[in-house]
Please model this.
Amino acid sequence: MHQYGFARIGIRFTRSLIPASLLVLGPLGCAASIPNIDMSIPRLTSGWYADYGSAEDQAHQTGRPMLIYFKGAAPWKPDSTEDAVKSAEVAARTDNMVRCVLIRSFEPDRRYVGQFNVERAPALILVHSDGTFHARTGAMNPPEILSFLDQAVSPGEVPKSYTFLRRPVQYSWLRTLEEAESAGRETDRPVLVVLDRPYSRDWERLSLMLHRREVFQRFSEMVHCRPNALWKFGRTAEERYGLSGLPAIAILQPDGTFQALPMPSSYESIIRFADRVSAESAIGPQDSKSHADSSGS
Model:
């Protein structure tokens, strides 16, 4: 879990950086001490994510709703809404949610909540597992927060499509195909399977291509699987996916159909493959149970 606030960019202010004994000259040349202000950032760290990328990943993996608290007050100022959010009754009510705190002074956070039509802080945003949301802005006390959560029943509004939102490139790899297929069926999501040969440099090359942002955008919503020695018990990749060689990637649909790309030669070939699979899935089930590209180019 990430630290709250400025820790996301590697900066953390504490009172130790400004000793209370440090003296500076006042406007009249007199010695004056800097106020001993507690600049500690964490206040909502326990059980809360401090970046939307990690919170989204957790929400997608677990199928739980995501609650976002968009904070406006400076860390050292009183914040009645924050006090309400971390009250015992609200904490108990939101314990089954993925909770995330974002701050108004951080531009990426402002852009992120903009897709939910939120421009002011403080605000609460409840993102349902179907992707729709409910939002409320303005100061709130515990009863008002509980009332908002009770009334925010799915489905809600559809977020705006913001293609410029920056999200971290972070795959959440499952290590067995059985586990990945089960997760795909439970969440009704496709499974991205990456197959590489043992004791080779396949993964080093594939990883560079998969971690390009334009590639990750196409796979971010899928279940990710990079099996450990998947075929060592005699079940070869060629038998399962009709492949002529490894490395390869495959996309398994929740209905059991799949398409595979053997030996991808470039990130552009992976993008073309992913876009074609997405387009064919939108059209409907194919006549063929499976399909493997003959070339990775």
In short: The first helix runs from residue 52 to 62. The radius of gyration is 24 Å. DSSP finds ten helices and twelve strands in the chain.
